[in-house]
Amino acid sequence: FGAVTSRIIHNKKASVSLVAALSTVFKMLRCAILLLFAASIPSVPALRVDPRFKVDFEIETPDGPGKFTVDVHPSWAPRAAARFKDLVNAGFYDDTRFYKVIPGEVAQFGINGDPAAHAEWHDKTFNDDHRQQSNHKSFVSFVKYDGANTRTTEILINLGANERAYDKAGHVPFGIILAKEMPIVHTLYPVMDDPDRDTIVAEGNAYLDKNFPQISKIISATIHSEHEDDRHTVHTEL
Predict the structure, then answer these.
(1) pTM of the entire structure?
(2) What tens digit of pLDDT does each residue of 8-44 get?
(3) How far apart are CA 205 and CA 41, in angstroms?
(4) CB 81 within 8 A of CB 175
């Protein structure tokens, strides 16, 4: 009886050792698979985000000349902020028109008054940003048309709370107009959405000024200042 008991105990110990060994092997295999899977995923490059900056807009409305400032936050939408800076530095928005103004909803601009100048940027789309802010009143976004990565030059100012509709449409805020400066924006001529966009692109200011003589104008857009203490680096897909 003693010999039988000894063999049983020995077999149990052997079984336990085998189970432990198999468990170790399985753990090693799982780690190896995870390492191989991780190695197969391409690394996401760091996208440098510029410091905050402000852009001053000198405008002309039916009430006379005025001014508002867009406070740009690259940390909200780095690609949009970078494109906006490029366009401002290129003078793209100078002598352009607010071609869509619906009171309480939106003011839109960003088609150059010179068709040849607009054509240079018309097909220069840029990749979408991940939305970090909603389209609250006074927030500024690039206009996104159907499909991904379709933004180019056109800008919208939220004149009302457009979070539900405009967030769903894919408009990504990159800046804001301070509340104290919004009254001048509310004086823009309510041209509604009557101007034909394709005709604006083809004929520029000549079409708008002839058919909508009261339309509000952007005289100039210039970078006002940069805040060097607001530098960030984010990780995002290119």
Answers:
(1) 0.76
(2) 445 555 555 655 655 665 677 675 665 564 455 444 4
(3) 49
(4) yes
